[in-house]
Amino acid sequence: MPNGLAVPFPANTFGLMVTTGAKGSTVNQSQVSCALGQQALEGRRVPRMSSGRTLPSFMPYDPNPRADGFIADRFLTGVRPQEYYFHCMAGREGLVDTAVKTSRSGYLQRCLIKHLEELKVGYDSTVRDGEGGVVQFLYGEDGVDPTKAAHLECSSSTLQYMARNHDSLKRRYMSLPNNTIDVAARDDARAKEIQSNASTFDLLKKGSHVKARKLRFGSTWKRGALCHGWFDAVITKEHSDGKHFDIEYTIGKSKARKVPVEVVFQYAGSRRTRAASALCTLIKPGVPDPLLSDLTRDGGRHRLGQSGACVSERVAGAAREAASSDAKVKEAIESAGISSSQFGDLVAAKYGSALCAPGGAGGGI
């Protein structure tokens, strides 16, 4: 098709009509001139009855392709009654899809768009309705407009393209203040270290983020004096024994000195219910809140849309890992004559330019 026709194009009027695009398709032409092919019902071949037949005119479990709905005849010379019946079954299914499902899905889409058309992105990156109510604190949980996120899937080929076209892309994407991926990449590396089940003491260093317990009263870590839950904190000093630390809590900026990593309670449980262990962990490695949702990091300097350092940890981690371990990306960076930090700045600038603009129709996107 169409070279195998008895009357070739353009003398074949049917082929002329299809080839020029006036009416019909290659499938229609092949069904008329060649064969109808395999008939499908709900994505499968024609099902068999409990007797093992597709139609009473076939033998039980007939292995012939015709018995399973394959039509080797064509409309030009006519089809057999059994094949015509199979074709009617497949055509009826398509008719139902056209007449019922299309109209219902179209009306459903219209209803959704009607309810979503009032949603818009505010200057504080929240998605709000017509009355000012918050629908989403951050559009899509990352603030990125899908229509602008062409190079943020972080694949090797995409990062190579960005490295090779560094100069032109740098002029295209306007970078925000403090443009870097270092902060987000550091958080991503910290999360991977914790997931790798490394030793707790290896992850507790000065300046590292931790989850710590907090005292309700007093200065002694004992049973009944601890607040419920964990609190974000930063290690300010590591003592010589490596098991005690000075920490500063993120909220309130209160400090606790010489906090042990673990403590053993003298009395654990009760007379009726004995505790499984008297050992209580007071400090454990932690990861800071995501940059995209943390408004207090470094005094509020890393806010979405205001700082170029506010980048998704997944994007920053993938870019940093590719720049250090992917041979093709490293070769592209070297051929472009740029450093890894310059490449990371380009990724951060691209992320900042892909954010939803204030006033954008969040529902329509």
Automatic annotation (TrEMBL):
EC number, as in UniProt: 2.7.7.6
UniProt GO molecular function: DNA binding; DNA-directed RNA polymerase activity
Domain RNA polymerase Rpb1: residue ranges: 11-71, 78-282
InterPro entries the record matches: DNA-dir_RpoC_beta_prime, RNA_pol_Rpb1_4, RNA_pol_Rpb1_5, Rpb1_funnel_sf
Keywords of the record: DNA-directed RNA polymerase, Nucleotidyltransferase, Transcription, Transferase
UniProt GO cellular component terms: RNA polymerase I complex
Enzyme superclass (EC): transferase
Gene3D superfamilies in the cross-refs: 1.10.132.30, 6.10.250.2940, 6.20.50.80
Transferase in keyword set: yes
GO terms for biological process, alphabetical: DNA-templated transcription
Family: Belongs to the RNA polymerase beta' chain family.
Protein name, entry field: DNA-directed RNA polymerase
Source organism (scientific name): Pseudictyota dubia
Organism lineage: Eukaryota, Sar, Stramenopiles, Ochrophyta, Bacillariophyta
